[in-house]
Amino acid sequence: MPAHQTPLIATIAAGLVLAYIIGLIAHRLRIQPLVGYLLAGVMVGPFTPGFVADQALASELAEIGVILLMFGVGLHFSLKDLMAVARVAVPGALLEISAATLLGGGLAWLMGWGLAAAVVFGLALSVASTAVVVRGLQERRMLETERGRIIVGWLVVEDLAMVVALVLLPALAGMAGGHGPALSHQAVLTTLGITLAKVAGFIIFMLVAGRRIIPWLMHYTAHTGSRELFRLAVYATALGIAFVAAHFFEASFALGAFVAGIVLGETKLSQRATEEAMPLRDAFGVLFFVSVGMLFNPAILLARPLAVLGTIAVIMLAKTAVVYGALRLFGYRRTTSLSVAARLGLIGEFSFILIGLGVALGLVPPAARDLVLAGAILSILLNPVLVSLADGVVEVKARVLAAVGRGPVVPAPLPEPVAEPEPAPEPEVVAPTPTSLSGHDIVVGHGRVGSLVTAGLLAAGRPVLVIEDRSEAREAARLAGAEVIDGNAATPAALALANLAGAQRLFVTIPESFEAGQVVMQARAANPGLEILARAHSDACYEHLENMGSNLTILGEREIAHRMLERARQDEVAELVKAE
Ligand code: AMP
User: Which of 87, 282, 316, 430 could connect to 345 by a Cys-Cys bridge, CB 3.0–4.6 Å?
Assistant: First the structure.
């Protein structure tokens, strides 16, 4: 059968094969594979010679990637988490969207476009790419950190705002001189009301009915013992609910999948569901980048270099600055604010949809679409640089503080327990007081690992100090009988309260290797004789922690293998004894 008769297969095959080959080359050259995927997209796109894949199909395939991605994020998220970050994410994201729209609109105005074009163009520059941001968070195991939660909350608000924009745009187009009927104000308001009611209806439906049916179905399926059926249940839930959300409730696919994930995440099966969703998610995630690459017309870089530069500046610099400012206003530390802001400094899928609709409605000139696409592809490529600069600033700051004697990287004696020299503390921190313990054990994190360590130490009669940034976990640690410090252990401020110089041992039980490394490095500098034990998840992470100064680094997966072998050996000995 010729390729033009099977466009779906041709698109998937060409996308995956080219992404694989160029991704591999990128890896060899020590460039991120993502760059390879984008390039593969440009190659199968309509603006370069040779085979041209089906653009509409490619973007639908990409949407599946986004659905699975957001479903996975939902699995890790609880409603409580969402409520906790809503306080900052809702006003913060709205402020950021308004500012970015104004700035992007200003740029459009400079280019001589009308008001409607300016607003649509500005809006398109204001939303970050969920797909790219979440992937980055997953790679760095940041989804479950405070920063990760703020970012996801932020993305959800942006997503909702875009749902509203996409619905309102056609309704407003007539008024703004584009295609479509000139509706009255009242008709527009009615459209808005109906949309919001539908989205709210979807969420209520999921929380009331979905919350009962989905976990029950999953348990039932799990008990059949069929892995295949369980896998099917996971995919059916993710895609089915996303489709229902988009088709019947006017919500986005991503939002639907996210809510489905949250509902399923409340059950004990969520870990298994995550594992099952992973392989397909990664494959479609790659197709997402290919489809972005396909839309890109490189000619725009030569035709309008200044406009491209301006667009990038709004996306990466102005937006980052606004997010940073908003978070600082809410009392977050500079380090947290910078890290979150940098990660949101890019645009993606929603921007394409919005600008595409704007062009179709005759509201914006086609050049706007090329600029948004160029802005997206360049910001996706350059964002990792921005992020590592931001993280670098965080690290440099720690060193500078140390150099001037206020930070933790000074060898013993321990620096005075000063608060971090920042005007605004983390919102939930209440008047931190340094510990009076000495000869104690410090446990960083009170989750699955830390709570067991703390319980064991307390049972052995050791004085234990727990550092934890999640309020429920702190409460649990207090109940268990430990002294508790509230805060992010990777920050000098939290560590300064822990009397590192007087401590006997430090257990770093948090899963995120970057933060764990920060803790180990600062602790080692503050107390060269301290016994440090740390938790790792990969060989790279193991090495990192050892380099930072950990005495015993435990790689969870290796330990599991050891225990299994131990058991096998015991069985063998038992057999031998029986045989004798
Ligand atoms: P688990 O992976 O279940 O052992 O949980 C890890 C625990 O460590 C969770 O309770 C987190 O809230 C906590 N945690 C993670 N990162 C930090 C950090 N940088 N500072 C303090 N606590 C943390």
Answer: 316
